[in-house]
Fold:
Amino acid sequence: MENTEKKQVVFSAIQPSGTITLGNYLGAVRNWVSMQEEYNCIYALADLHTITVRQEPAQFRRNILDAYASIMACGIDPEKSIFFIQSHVHTHAEIAWILNCYTQFGELSRMTQFKDKSAKHADNINAGLFTYPSLMAGDILLYQTDKVPVGADQKQHIELTCDVARRFNGLYGEVFKIPEGFIPQNGARVMSLQNPLNKMSKSDENVNGCVHLLDPPEVIMKKFRRAVTDSDACVRFAEGKDGVNNLMTIYGAVTGKTMEQIENEFAGKGYGDFKTAVGEAVIEELRPIRERYERLIKDKAYLADCYHKADEIALKISSRTLAKVKKKVGYIV
Ligand code: TYM
Structure:
């Protein structure tokens, strides 16, 4: 019998603010890939978000294409998913303005990412950095999204998205579907290898803290060999062992092993063996991605064909929601 049940919609996005990291991959992109079979998946390169921090134009342009090719290399299949570029689809900027008028100053002030980023870029605390969650809410709500696969750091933004959507629906009727975050059990918060109290981030000043998706194998191994641990010399998951916990989390996320299995595997062994095993596992996970990336980045025409097609479909779908929103608010459409 034909399956007539409608597939649920998945939406997520990533900023092309630098090279994609192991944190992005384990926290989000890996799930984007696995969800393609079961869901209607829509993914975006959130390049409108990226200019909340000043970008050098030529480098930014390179980062956009590089990030697009990297995400495709992770396994996003253009035949199965829609993977578009946010700045090419004008409905996003448009709905962001409308949602800004339904989001409170107090709500935006409570966003931890705003507080962190404004501390980090104290010379450029622009209005975009402040209203960024309204744009993100618009991204999600335009597609009547059911599930949003993200890392733990985006949870607060998704909660705000739901609050704004409920408020809007409360005023005008059922306009938006209320989405739900989809945060992995393991890998939702990969920490810096050099300072395991901080999130692994594209903009980490310490190059050894962050593993990039396209790092060559010897670089990945060097970073893991230098990873900060402790003086306990015992591979076990416990409070206060942030460096080891992080390495165990990464190893578990890549191999599928539980913390207990990892503890048993390395019982009686030193951190040297453990770090080498984590490095090797990550190298093997990333090797095919790097190889696919090398092929894709050479084929700019193919990449352009993929995003042009996706941009067009994204515009078509999102325009329906935007038109409904505008009508409800009272605009003549
Ligand atoms: P961004 O570009 O900072 O990160 C992309 C995705 O990677 C996850 N992530 C991590 N997961 C685990 N450990 C880490 N160290 C780590 N660092 C990043 C993030 O949680 C995210 O899922 N605002 C978003 C982009 C965005 C978006 C959206 C996401 C724009 N519109 C709509 C979902 C839905 C961001 O800056 O992600």
Summary: The chain has a mean pLDDT of 96. The CA atoms of residues 69 and 136 lie 22 Å apart. The chain has 13 helices and five strands.
